[in-house]
Specification:
This protein has about 400 residues and is an alpha/beta fold. The protein has helices at about 1-10, 25-35, 50-70, 80-85, 90-95, 115-125, 145-160, 170-180, 220-230, 245-260, 275-280, 295-300, 300-310, 320-330, 340-355, 355-370, 380-390; strands at about 15-20, 40-45, 105-110, 125-130, 165, 185, 205-215, 235-245, 260-265, 285, 315, 335.
Amino acid sequence: MLKAADALTDAGYRVRLVSVSQTPWMTVTDAAISARRHWTPFVVDYSQATAPALRRKTGVRFKLMQTLATAIGSSSVPMGVAIRAYGRAHDELVDAATAEPADLVYGGSTGALAAVVESARKLGVPYAVDFEDFHSGEAIGEGSELQNALAERVERYVIPGAAFITAASPMIAETYADQHGISPLVIHNTFSIASAQVAERRDGRLHLYWFSQTLGPRRGLEEVIRAAGVARIEIELHLRARPIPEYLDSLQRLQAAVAPQLKIVNHQPATPDDMVALAQPYDAGLACEEPEPLNRQLCLTNKIFTYLAAGIPMFLSRTLAQACLERSLGGAAFGYDCGDVEGLASAMRRLSEDAALRECARAAARRAAEQRWHWEHADDRGALLRAVAGATA
């Protein structure tokens, strides 16, 4: 949505970007991003530190609606209850989106899908939705059955009236097509290419990089640590995310037990504007997705396209979507089967020990970004602009 807002503003549209903030660091980052933009921001802040009253209000409503959805059943509960059991800040997002006139409402993410529809109907304008993930196959663990069932209910609510629908990967689009008989427009989460920069190794270690908003379980990092132990080479694993403390402790215990030559370095989250440049100094990025839940098999994460825009290769777990993409990346991707620690360790050793391979892999990543995987490509940014123009004609 950030890239969409930028692209539409650059194309001459007047854009209001409505978003939510749940934690203080998000509020600071949002402010830094907005200060450099020409679109108008509106942040629904319900973090405990800065908006405790709204956090309590949305929390009570959310819990009540989820209790009703559980008791009555996600398929039987009134639509208004299902929507608010799925999106905690639904009402606040609608109020923000309808505070001023608009010609089109476009949005996505878990909590905003139904808000897009209701906002457009109140304004009397078309709407479009973005499925950045396969939402009804996104949750895993405790409460996931209800969450996925509510997601499917909301999907069926938002799809029929949409002027257009976008999806963030071909397999997400194909799955929605199979289930709902639609043809989503695939717009990858690509990024603008950074200026060329060759990283000089400061030591003999292999420097690996992974980032997200939160450092937590089910992201394949345990497999990376075990592979580092099997590889028996000096490695620095840099993790940029706000950690769940007990989870980071568990990674460090695992490292001490199985990978004594591995050093783990934790970095705080950074603004999206800086993520491509921050990836450039490393030998390779990690796109180590696990095969569950279903969404992880179908999605192509922003990590992949960040690494390519930065001009660095990646270690890529072969989920369904990532294995398909791997074939188009050539030497920029070192694929390994999910669970194949030995295979990942072998790839790590090869990249660490072969300077020519590292140079070729960086060149392949750069070439892949320049030829196809950049935001300005006609099939990504261009496709979005054409869809918006058609919807507002």
